[in-house]
Amino acid sequence: MKSLYLGALLLFAMALFSLLWGQYPIDISTFMEYLQMKFTAKQTMPQAEYELINNIITEIRLPRVLLAILIGAALATSGGVFQAMFVNPLVSPGILGVLAGASFGAALGMLLSEQWFVVQILAFVFGFIAVVFAILIGSMVTSSRSTVMLVLGGVISGSLFTSLLSVIKYVADPYSTLPAIVYWLMGSLSMADFNEVVLVGVPISMSIFGMIFMGKYFDILSLGDEEAKALGVNVKAIRITAIVLATLASSLSVVMAGIIGWIGLIIPHIIRMAVGPSHRLLIPLSALVGGAFLLLADAISRLALSVEIPIGILTSLIGIPIFIIVLKNARAAWN
Amino acid sequence: MELKPIIEVKDLHFSYKNHNVLSGINFKLYKGEVISLLGPNGCGKSTLIRLILKLLEGKGEIKLNNKALQKCSHKEIASHIAYIPQYHNVPFNYSVLEMVLMGRISKLGIFASPSAHDEKKATDALRRVGILNLHNRPFGQLSGGQKQLVLLARALAQEVNFFIMDEPVNGLDYGNQIRLLELIKSLSQEGYTFLKTTHYPDHALLVSTRVVVLNAGKIVADGEPHQVINSQMIEDIYGVQSDIIEHGLHKRCIPVFAHKNI
Predict the structure, then answer these.
(1) Please, are residues B95 and B136 in contact by the beta-carbon 8 Å criterion?
(2) CA angle A197, A297, A2 (to 5 degrees)
(3) B82: which of A16, A64, B158, B247 fits an S-S bond (Cβ 3.0–4.6 Å)?
(4) A172 vs A160: CA distance, rounded Å
(5) Exposure string (b/e) for B46-61, b if CB count within 10 Å is 16 or more?
(6) Residue A101: C-alpha distances to residues A125, A160, A240, A289, B149 (Å)
(7) From B77, B89, B98, residue closest to A335, measured CB to CB
(8) Which chain B residues touch A230 with a CB distance below 8 Å?
(9) How far, CA to CA in Å, does B125 sit from each of A227, B101, B166?
(10) Host H or E run for residue A102
(11) pLDDT computed for residue A332 by the predictor
(12) Interhelix angle for A235-257 vs A194-213, to 10°?
């Protein structure tokens, strides 16, 4: 329980930092004055300064902060859930091909329609097809739970959808649609707009909360299907619900911000090393820390250089060394 | 007044791809019994307990407290039967207390977390099997005997009074085997009912109230241990010689080498 408060505190601190720090830094006392003026209508600063800060906070930084939290949380919880579902330390939305499938679906949606929900639905449908395809390939050779085969299935599924995505890029207009797709895929939170964040935030948060509430069942399912059934759990229903929720959350993250890799793999590993494997704690804590991690990566992407670095590139650059360190110690947490 | 059976199996058949594993099984299990299922490897013991737990589906009829098993959900079955598998490794290193708390899952609502009440049931169960001191240890670091006790505690936390055990002493050292048998015996005296498979006729004599012998998918003997287990039966089933001797309260089964001079 204490670790949950700690996680929440970390997320809150990162969110506050991201709201205040940027090209136009706002110090904490000015921020407090701004809040006072916004919510009590007391005149604490000149109207022009208030308008400027209000614009920066509500139009630019707040949507971005919310989006980073949503996406970081979505990817980290989905990763934790996939690892539990397949009892496999090496899977994540990226490795199972979900991100590739969803990006193909979203790109297809952008090509076919301007309707936002068409893009979202196609991203989810193809993300789901990609993961089912990976599972089918993984179980084709051996029916038992094989770590390597499932990862291989995910690699194949991911490559397939990456190729299909290339087809879309090839036929896309090279002056407008193609650069848009390429830049979007590198991963960015810069397109955040408040309405879109709310629109995609509802289904993403619903899936995240769904996965958090299912934590106790993930513990049981990791014992194996027979034992889970004997303990009174409806294994099939839990498994399907979990895969649908994890796929939904990670596919929608692709729609909003392109492919952001590694979070789904490393955050659950780090949490497992810190607080143990019980999914009742692992899943909610992954959500909090995943959100904080993406806020950190986003802060670096905005502030490190004078131009913004695509965040997908950054999470990989930060994620890979962390994962190497984690991998070394992961044997202790994985039996 | 006739007792109602907990489990009633009628004309049960099961086959894997043209290979008959069980054919025409009939038996009833009553409250308070400790039944040992004996039989050679591949005789269908494990298949039978899996069928009773609805982990497999066969042809024929199985009733749980007079209700067709097919109509029972796993949750409903878990409110009558606790399954204690052979100890095994789990992929995640849960603590002992977390493992035992998993026995409470069928009692929890969909969105509920285990409460203080559930934790108390889990610690009571650990205390009953004598390993409360291990509650914080990672399950993966325990010895085989300790793991088996954790799985037994998990079944106790499930708050049912019928346990199905699959070769409970398998892989345990001699001392842990005897301690586990003692625990089964004392739990049975507290009113728990057991159905367990075993490879040891001697253990069946020590703890069972009834022995069911399976061979090639059929029940070949069913009755009180000292009547069912005799030298002839051991030879028919396992193809080895043995002496059955009286020792204290129990009969004992002592193996004898076929070649007297070795």
Answers:
(1) yes
(2) 85
(3) B158
(4) 19
(5) bbbbbbbbbbbebebe
(6) 8, 8, 18, 26, 46
(7) B89
(8) 53, 55, 74, 77-78, 81-83, 85
(9) 19, 10, 20
(10) helix A98-112
(11) 55
(12) 160
- Contacting residues of B for A226, CB less than 8 Å apart: 50, 55, 85
Task: Count CB-CB contacts under 10 A for residue A3.
Answer: 16
Q: Are A97 and A157 in contact (CB under 8 A)?
A: yes
Q: How many CA atoms lie within 13 A of B240 on its CB side?
A: 11
Rounded Cα–Cα distance for residues A110 and A254 (Å) = 13
Query: What whole-number distance in Å separates Cα of residue A194 and Cα of residue B9?
Result: 63
Q: How far is B33 from chain A (nearest CA, A)?
A: 21
**Closest by Cα among A84, A312, A323 to A218:** A84
Tell me the whole-structure pTM to 2 decimals. Answer: 0.89
pLDDT in tens, B16-32: 888 899 999 999 999 99
What value, to the nearest 5°, has the Cα angle with vertex A266 and ends A318 and B137? 135
pLDDT tens-digit series, residues B177-213: 999 999 999 999 999 999 999 999 999 999 999 999 9
d(CA A83, CA A215): 12
Over residues A283-287, mean pLDDT = 97
Helix, strand, coil distribution of chain B in percent, nearest 5: 35, 30, 35
CB-closest option in A216, A276, A333 to B95: A276
Confirm or reject contact between B103 and chain A (CB < 8 A).
yes
Domains within chain A, CATH numbers bracketed: 2-13+30-333 (1.10.3470.10)
Report how many Cβ contacts below 8 Å link chain A to chain B. 86
Cβ(A119)–Cβ(A203) below 8 Å: no
Q: What is the ipTM of this complex?
A: 0.93
- B137 contacts B106 by C-beta, under 8 angstroms: no
The phi, psi pair for B255, rounded to 5°, reads: -70, 150
CB contact at 8 A, B165 and B80: no
Cβ distance of B91 and A276 shorter than 8 Å: no
Contacts of A334 in chain B (CB under 8 A): 91-93
Q: What's the whole-number average pLDDT of chain B? A: 93
Question: Hey, CA dihedral for A135, A139, A144, A145, is it positive or negative?
Answer: negative
- The shortest C-alpha distance from B84 to chain A (Å) reads 9
Distance from CA of B80 to the nearest CA of A (A): 10
